[in-house]
Design a protein that fits this description.
The structure is a single chain. With 240 residues, this protein is an alpha+beta fold. The strands form three sheets. It has a four-stranded mixed beta sheet, covered by helices on one side. It has a two-stranded antiparallel sheet with strand order 2-3. The protein has a two-stranded antiparallel sheet with strand order 5-6. The longest helix is centred in the C-terminal third of the chain and has 20 residues.
């Protein structure tokens, strides 16, 4: 049942063909770096409010915004990005130590004649459907749908968007102060991963990117463009 859904949903899927700063290597590499940009609490609060008018979560709003931006960058209306699910849908594994995360595909059609709010409503349904059919392991999906692979690209999705949960809240234990520390990321899992990390009612946008494809200045500009887009969405989600 779940495989049938994905076969239908992803039929005729094209790769996300983002313009790159450097020629694409014939074999996919993992050389990477990250760019960080803080989104203010006021903007995040306005995005939550704007999404509520369409019964959409902050995550759904962020997915829709990233898809609009990448659609414009790539010049593609039909595009797919990935996200992750926890893989803990059963009570039996809630307290089991292990890595259960699965990648799911979110495919959308960006119609520029529609309002953003209309598009957000469609993305909401896409997200709900994808999460309802997330029991198929991603590698099984790749084997089923992509018998012939392009070694220069990741299969099915080339970009991801993730909204993290707060993992460690700063706290003290005896004389010890505990907080998070951002480690370097010299490897990229996909061409582009747009990750949002909460903290103090704000969000830090962390863009992980493949340095064999993109220059640091390009990713900094993309991050600034995304913040501009998010501010416009928060101000008026009814615009085209």
């Amino acid at each position: 049942e779940h495989l049938a859904y994905w076969r239908n949903k992803l039929a005729g899927l094209h790769v996300l063909d983002l313009p790159t700063d450097r020629p694409r290597p014939p074999l996919l590499t993992t050389a990477g770096a990250v760019h960080r940009r803080r989104l203010p609490a006021g903007l995040v609060g306005d995005l939550v409010t704007a999404g509520q008018a369409y019964d959409a979560t902050l995550f759904m709003n962020l997915v829709a915004a990233v898809q609009v931006l990448l659609s414009r960058y790539a010049g593609q209306q039909d595009l797919a990005i990935g996200t992750v699910t926890s893989g803990r849908n059963w009570a039996e594994v809630e307290n089991v130590t292990g890595f259960f995360i699965n990648t799911v595909v979110l495919r959308s059609l960006v119609d520029e004649s529609a309002s953003y709010g209309e598009f957000l409503s469609e993305v909401k349904e896409t997200v709900l459907e994808a999460f309802a059919h997330d029991e198929v392991p991603f590698d099984r999906l790749v084997d089923e749908l992509l018998p012939d692979r392009d070694p220069s690209r990741t299969p099915l999705v080339q970009a991801m968007v993730v909204l993290q949960n707060a993992v460690v809240r700063p706290r003290a234990a005896g004389g010890l102060r505990i907080t998070e520390y951002d480690l370097p990321r010299p490897a990229a899992r996909f061409e582009l991963v747009v990750e949002f990390v909460p903290g103090d009612d704000a969000l830090t946008m962390v863009i992980e990117y493949n340095t064999d494809l993109f220059a640091a200045a390009t990713i900094a500009r993309l991050a600034a463009d995304l913040e501009t887009l998010l501010a416009a969405i928060a101000a008026d989600p009814h615009r085209r």
